[in-house]
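Deviation from plan, reported transparently: adenosine-5'-triphosphate complex.
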Amino acid sequence: MLVDVQNLHKSLLSPLGGPSVDILRGLDFTLEEAATVAVLGPSGSGKSTFLNILGALDHSDSGLVRVAGLDLSQLKNRALSEYRNQTVGFVFQMHHLLPQCSVLENVLAPSLVTRGRDRSQIEARARELLDSLGLAHRLAHRPGELSGGERQRVAVARAMVLSPKLLLADEPTGALDRAAAANLGEILLQMNRKYQVALLVVTHSRELASQMQRVLELKDGKLLQAS
Ligand SMILES: Nc1ncnc2c1ncn2[C@@H]1O[C@H](COP(=O)(O)OP(=O)(O)OP(=O)(O)O)[C@@H](O)[C@H]1O
Ligand SMILES: [Mg+2]
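Because the crystal trials were delayed, the predicted structure below was used instead.
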């Protein structure tokens, strides 16, 4: 099993200074290696909160979160950075690419902080990814010179460059038109099949969700089979 989450709790302080709100309330979740799952749920139900905890961008209040054999609550300093950098890949609604860097430099950015990995091998993988995503002719372009769909594909390549075991996508098609959204969905599934990366996609799109092996819904702080 790649991901094992048990009895996860998370509350957040209200931005207006009111009482804290229980966002995740005893959430259970498992994901097998190389499996795919979609998470639906209304705005504010805690989808991003859950994804950020899985990606170790945020921490839980209590409960078990184990990914690739690692108990995330036990990770500190270097192990934590390595986890964020290498075990998981993240794709957000907004691409968050570095505007001054070329496409290739953006995809290579995660590798700047890794140690003990072969640079030329990483660069070869970056080129292979960009090639398979139809961006081979865009390597020297800056993000501002790309379409929205192309930028998201670069973001996927960046998320995949260090061969993560788990790809977390938070409304990756939310800012795209219908055709580009369909294309990006296809690309995420292609990454899953080709590289055996497990895929967890948060989306408001039933169409995208239906392409995943399982569809779950975040409701009342828990993940349930979507109706
Ligand atoms: N840093 C924060 N501090 C306080 N409250 C927050 C913080 N981040 C999110 N929240 C609140 O926590 C709740 C869950 O937010 P979250 O972003 O996880 O929802 P979501 O399901 O991803 O929603 P959306 O579909 O709009 O992206 C919301 O009520 C939100 O206002
Ligand atoms: Mg969200």
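The domain at 3-225 is CATH 3.40.50.300 (Rossmann fold). We consider this an acceptable substitute for the interim report.
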